[in-house]
Amino acid sequence: LIETSQFSGALHTPPTTIHSQEDCDIEVELMKRRYKRAKDLMEAQKYREAIPHLKRTLDAIKVAGGNPGFPDTRACQKVQNLLAKALIETNSDLADAEAILTELFETATTEPSDRFSAAHLLSQLYLSQQPDDYTKAKTMCLIAVKGKNATLGRTHPETYASIALLCSICQ
Question: Is the pTM of this model over 0.85?
């Protein structure tokens, strides 16, 4: 199987058919380029355009997970977090976003701030899904605020973002 990369214009071998270190290196480079493109789109608030890049990157990471040289679990979690954020921002595939965020929230990770970022996004999701019932949104947001305060500090911008979300929930 061969597919065309929209970033390099070159043909590449999908991760399932990687046989050599050179193939592995090429696939890793393509994943990095897809991820960079997706991050750039997210920063430009072009969430809908970022979604396919994030999905392809995530699929490639998952398929190639057992191959040495491929991004680790942390990289997968970063892509999942961005994908969930893009899905929430575009109000599309919210069930997928919830599943991704729940997995991130419940998974033990070397970076505790990842768990609290997932809690923040889950809070936003619950708030949009259940505007009349703030219970789940408030619970998740409290976890995010307390966790970010403990890990990042009170003055960190992400902590402020979670505090602001909690204030909007409690109004």
Answer: no
